[in-house]
């Protein structure tokens, strides 16, 4: 345990044991002279949970430049994606499910960006200027595929051009995906057929008034709710889309660690 007063976002011993092999296997940066690898992970999770800027890292955590170095490396070499996938399999197994999914839910969320963002667009429907998160989650709401675009990209375009091909490539067992009305159209159905996945549009009833929970679709919406609990994800504060995706992985990693240990 760190020789300081712990933060609520710190890993306990069981949680650290689950992820240690992944961050140990990633050989990057300075040797552990001043700070342990565990403290680096604690600092990254602190930023994810609180939304603090890198340069405002508390002084009892490792130097922000060192922490950012590891964050950038783990983002680049796929460590965060690998860790998300490994923990998801463990959570699914604990819940009595097969480790690999056969069904999923696809949804998107438009979020505002900061002025420093390299890419941004305007979602006329949601009246949001920023980026759009396209997330494919399993029936437990756990992340399978994340894809970042500018907010003006249509859901059907992102699904046909990126999300469905990635899903078919990474999850050969996937057979069914539920979506909302924004994915209606021949383009999505053609892509679904090419990738061997059945895409079903869950439409809102014409008789429904006010807020009504939609079958299957609510699972994706709940995942966005989970992520919004992390202040770093309540808005898109990142300059690069790759960093935005990395923090989505970190939010899901922290959530699954709490479920497992």
Q: What attributes characterize this protein structure?
A:
single chain; 6-stranded mixed beta sheet; 15% strand; Nucleotidyltransferase, domain 5; 261 residues; alpha/beta
Descriptive overview:
β3 (128-138) and β4 (143-150) form a beta hairpin. The protein has 2 domains: 13-76, no CATH class; 100-236, Ribonuclease H-like superfamily/Ribonuclease H (Nucleotidyltransferase, domain 5), CATH 3.30.420.10. 43% of the residues lie in helices and 15% in strands. The protein has helices at 13-25, 37-50, 64-76, 79-94, 155-170, 186-194, 217-228, 241-260; strands spanning 103-112, 121-123, 128-138, 143-150, 176-179, 198-201. It is an alpha/beta fold. Strands 1, 2, 3, 4, 5 and 6 form a 6-stranded mixed beta sheet that branches. α5 runs parallel beside α6 (186-194).
